[in-house]
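ok posting inputs for the pyridoxal-5'-phosphate job
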Amino acid sequence: MKRNPTAFLREEYEKLVEEGLDWRLKVLQSASQPWCIVDGKKVLMLCSNNYLGLCNHPEVKRAAMEAIEKYGVGAGSDRSIAGNLDLHHELERKLAEFKRAPASLVYQTGFMANEGLIPQLVGRGDLIVSDELNHGSIIDGVRLSRADRAIYKHCDLEDLERILNEAEKHDPPYRRILIVTDGVFSMDGDIAPLDKIAELGAEHGAMVYVDDAHGEGVLGEGGRGIVSHFNLSRDEVHVEMGTFSKAYGVIGGHITGSEDLYRFAYNRSRTWLLSASNSPADTAACIAAIEVMEREPQRVQKLWDNTKYFKKAVEELGFNTGKTQTPIIPIIVGENLLAKRFSDELFKRGVFVFPITYPMVPRGTARVRVQMNAEMSREDLDFAIENLEAVGKELGII
Ligand SMILES: Cc1ncc(COP(=O)(O)O)c(C=O)c1O
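and the output
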């Protein structure tokens, strides 16, 4: 019988639907801000990464529009060929200054930074040591590398030390060791013990790489991120990776560290070298977003005020928020279907919060993941809390 080479496409999709694991996306029809239009309905947005409200900031938008006027909509090429704009260099200077570091390199996305750089830092004869809950882009970067891999239990320093001690006995000795961790874990909102990780790294001569996608704009002085939060130097944390797609409100990835790191990454990251450069509008918007963060550190304070108020209220109602320490506040309900129902019922009441289910989180820990926003008012938070309480009681969650 002749084989149908694409039959698996439908079969696999149908299997996903059967298991309730297919993505059913809602459609955003306005700017991402506290009150949005989603699927034609006005709702309070509780699940965007726009922590500081910069997505729709007038100065950030103006910078993007002016860049389009001057440069057009695309840079016309990869940076490595003919698309290397003065704006890209300005953004890199600005970011390095903001991070108080020697150098930053801008990538097209955070995913591309991890995927493009990790496999160049380590290869055959090396070891990568990675937290078990690291983001998928780190996992893919690790998979692309030919280095040996060891996964340590989530934020477990003893387990990390055990692996590093064993690595010392490896014969032949490892050429390089890279420890890689998320800064703030995206599903739970807990913070990696980066100071202790850096200590272990120094003891064992390992490089330390942190993905601070959810720590930027949130942790550290004026939202400078996790390296600032722990007051660490660039000799202790060698790669601070981040993204412009969350607190900065735009899109784009980046790494920050030494001049050596900058030159190495610039010449070796395949995603950077072989893909078109960030658009003029996005790049100018990122510059403006950093300027707003520098000028308005009170946004970070407001984000934390909102976080503390909301977290306390939902915990007092009896919700399980796990081990969050940041504006990512999971409300853990257990089963996949219950998390979906919780999210659906909240949406009917005008609260948009996304369900996170197995396999994104371990079985039995499905949740809705709330992300706080600096632009939410007390009334907005109370509206969210009242509705969480009502639906939580209706569904027997609290
Ligand atoms: C921890 C972490 N790293 C990397 C990324 C990827 O960033 P970007 O959206 O810029 O590709 C994300 C985004 O979801 C993330 O949460």
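notes: The chain has two domains: 24-51+297-394, 58-295. The pocket of pyridoxal-5'-phosphate is lined by residues 109-111, 135, 137, 182, 186, 211, 213-214, 243, 245, 253 (CB under 6 Å).
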